[in-house]
Amino acid sequence: MKRRIAGPAAITLLAVTTVASTPLFGHRVRVVHRHGHHVHFGAVGHVHHPRVVRVARVNYGTVDFNVRPQKSRIYVDGGYLGIADDFNGYPQKARLSAGRHRVRVVSPSGRVEVRTIYVAAGRELNFNLTF
Questions:
Q1: Whether the Cβ atoms of residue 113 and residue 128 lie closer than 8 Å to each other
Q2: What is the radius of gyration, based on Cα positions, of the chain?
Q3: Other C-beta atoms within 10 Å of 42: how many?
Q4: pLDDT for the residue 67
Q5: What is the pLDDT of residue 50?
């Protein structure tokens, strides 16, 4: 049985999905073997053949918005993301899909800055702006 899972908690979701769909439900699960994008799971304390599950590649990156003033509003691709202070460093970073995005930042005084950014899968981008 193969399932595609994406995201930072892929292994956790994978374990829950695998356990819920097998007779192993209710038992602890451990990773038996990892090989590339294949992960083998087995039940702890039981003799079962491990499941083989394909894990999808990461298709998002993170953006660290270092914007001053911190109360500036951030819009990505026309939608409101939040204020800059919400996404200005660990662990507060915006998670965006890989690819090009149009970012519009509006300061509390009404000044506007528009930029096109490229988010690489699995990478972090520092977005620096001071009004």
A1: no
A2: 20
A3: 19
A4: 96
A5: 55
pLDDT tens digit sequence for 17-46: 444 444 444 455 455 555 555 555 555 555
Token look-up 């990478």 returns 123
Question: Scanning the structure block, which residue is given the tokens 């209710």?
Answer: 26
Nearest 5°: phi and psi at 118? -120, 120
Amino acid identity, position 108: P
pLDDT under 70: residue ranges of the chain:
1-56
Cβ neighbours of residue 95 under 8 Å, at least 6 residues apart? 60, 61, 62
Residue pair 2/54 in contact by the 8 Å Cβ criterion: yes
Q: Long-range contacts: 12-17, Cβ < 8 Å, 24+?
A: 14/39, 14/41, 14/53, 14/55, 15/41
